[in-house]
Amino acid sequence: MWRGSAKVKGATVKQWRELLSATSVDVKLRNIFDPDNRGFKLVHEFDGDNFAIAHTKYTANSYFVSDRDFLFVRAVRTHWSDQEGICFIGTSLNEADFADDPIVKNNQPNGVVRAHIDFFGWIVKPSEEGIEIVYYNHAQPGGWIPTAVYNALSKTQALSPLKYKQYLEK
């Protein structure tokens, strides 16, 4: 399980939400916060970007380890007021339940291992000086990954809130 948190001075929940939305379409921007990511797309949106099926691919940065991808559903509970927070959660789809769905068929892994996200999420809430960001993730990487590579990836994922802090405070 990965978890990270940061307090961001002078930022608002709305600013963070807009930045996170921008990372959904701008891979270069996304890689500032998530350097192991090699692609992200919203496969299908059900309610704007508040409820969607998404696909993302990650590299292990190791010659000996296959890249991983995830097909997951995510939901966002948004309060646009700076007095309230936001909760952004998701989990992998059970592909057996959607085997005939074109969304799942058209997003099969190609030369990568399909990993499973038990749960992930962001909680962003106002604090006295700005906002507090908490990120958590529990995933099953699938296949074989050497312990040293897995530990290195765990550290980079847990640093995501700190990278948002650095970006928003500059």
Automatic annotation (TrEMBL):
Keyword Magnesium annotated: no
Gene Ontology CC: cytoplasm
Example of a GO MF term: lipid binding
Pfam families given in the database record: START
Domain of life, source organism: Eukaryota
Keyword Nucleotide-binding: no
InterPro entries from the UniProt entry: START-like_dom_sf, START_lipid-bd_dom, START_lipid_transfer
UniProt keyword terms in alphabetical order: Collagen
PROSITE patterns linked: START (PS50848)
PANTHER family, per the entry: PHOSPHATIDYLCHOLINE TRANSFER PROTEIN (PTHR19308), START DOMAIN-CONTAINING PROTEIN (PTHR19308:SF14)
Protein name: Collagen type IV alpha-3-binding protein
Natural source organism: Acrasis kona
